[in-house]
């Protein structure tokens, strides 16, 4: 299916993680983001749609957990533009030598820590199929539709791809009007489809990456937590539900999220409080009433944890969104 992308170059800055999701929907990415690191959130999203290809470079100053869906009928190749501290993708631990593949048939499942610039190149499947067939890259054609979600391309190919991305982002920034000319768009389209095919083709010479064996049950544990944030669910309850030991659960969460299960649960409940505070502004609902709904009964400790996590008092969230 071909996607019709209106040519544009846009930079968006934001100070609220919920705004990130709403702004990305304008570019056909339907995602939910949750902070996993404490502190005031700042982010920038640069998007360029040129020659039917979408280039994106999201940068955030805090670690986030992202889930959702990419534009239908597309495949996205994503690479870190610097060495990541923690970068998890569908249970894979990715490095600066790895690339993620996001296919619209599979949901997004990502966790990234710290300030990690990430480059994403999104192309419709039909264009990749067509050029792969024309150049006799049958292995690439099958890769577009199989279950592979992370690859390790040949280093020289990956360096060339990263170098071209840095160069094209610089051109987008310095010469936006020139880049949007039809002739230039055609050149960019031809070059980058070829580069993406090179990246996909070269991974066949290397052993496949392996996801964490703990990821499936930790993902299930996360689903249970997120479905029960508004009721007291203990770590013991979670272990009994999954039929695993507390030690196994703890190791799994550390491996997949870099956090223990209790810490992860508290962070998600704090996120739930924040969303409800923003939605309840001006309705006469108190901070303590909302905090209690999310399992926080010690108001002093809750207020400290909330301010540490979001950089403001819960009362300020309620007041500023009224």
From TrEMBL:
One of its GO terms (molecular function) is sequence-specific DNA binding. Keywords: DNA-binding, Transcription, Transcription regulation. InterPro entries: AraC_XylS_family_regulators, Homeodomain-like_sf, HTH_AraC. Residues 219-320 form the HTH araC/xylS-type domain. This is Transcriptional regulator, AraC family protein. It comes from Microcystis aeruginosa NIES-3807.
């Amino acid at each position: 299916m071909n996607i019709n992308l209106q040519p544009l170059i846009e930079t968006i800055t934001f100070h609220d993680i919920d705004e990130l999701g709403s702004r990305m929907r304008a570019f056909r990415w339907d995602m939910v983001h949750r902070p996993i690191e404490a502190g005031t959130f700042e982010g920038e999203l640069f998007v360029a749609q040129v020659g039917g290809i979408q280039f994106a470079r999201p940068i955030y100053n805090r670690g986030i957990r992202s889930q959702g869906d990419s534009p239908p009928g597309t495949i996205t190749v994503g690479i870190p533009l610097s060495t990541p501290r923690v970068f998890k993708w569908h249970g894979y631990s990715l490095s600066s030598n790895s690339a993620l593949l996001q296919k619209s048939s599979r949901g997004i499942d990502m966790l990234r820590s710290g300030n990690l610039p990430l480059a994403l190149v999104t192309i419709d499947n039909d264009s990749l199929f067509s050029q792969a067939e024309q150049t006799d890259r049958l292995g690439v054609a099958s890769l577009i539709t199989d279950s592979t979600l992370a690859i390790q391309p040949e280093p020289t190919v990956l360096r060339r791809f990263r170098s071209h991305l840095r160069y094209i982002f610089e051109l987008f920034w310095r010469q936006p009007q020139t880049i949007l000319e039809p002739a230039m768009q055609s050149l960019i389209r031809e070059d980058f489809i070829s580069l993406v095919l090179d990246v996909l083709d070269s991974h066949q010479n290397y052993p496949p990456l392996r996801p964490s064996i703990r990821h499936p049950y930790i993902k299930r544990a996360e689903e249970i937590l997120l479905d029960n944030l508004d009721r007291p669910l203990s770590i013991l309850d979670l272990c009994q539900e999954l039929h695993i030991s507390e030690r196994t659960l703890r190791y799994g969460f550390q491996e997949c999220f870099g956090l223990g299960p209790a810490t992860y649960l508290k962070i998600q409940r704090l996120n739930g409080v924040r969303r409800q505070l923003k939605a309840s502004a001006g309705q006469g609902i108190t901070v303590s009433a909302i905090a209690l709904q999310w399992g926080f009964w010690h108001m002093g400790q809750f207020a400290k944890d909330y301010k540490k996590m979001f950089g403001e008092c819960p009362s300020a969230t309620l007041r500023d969104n009224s």
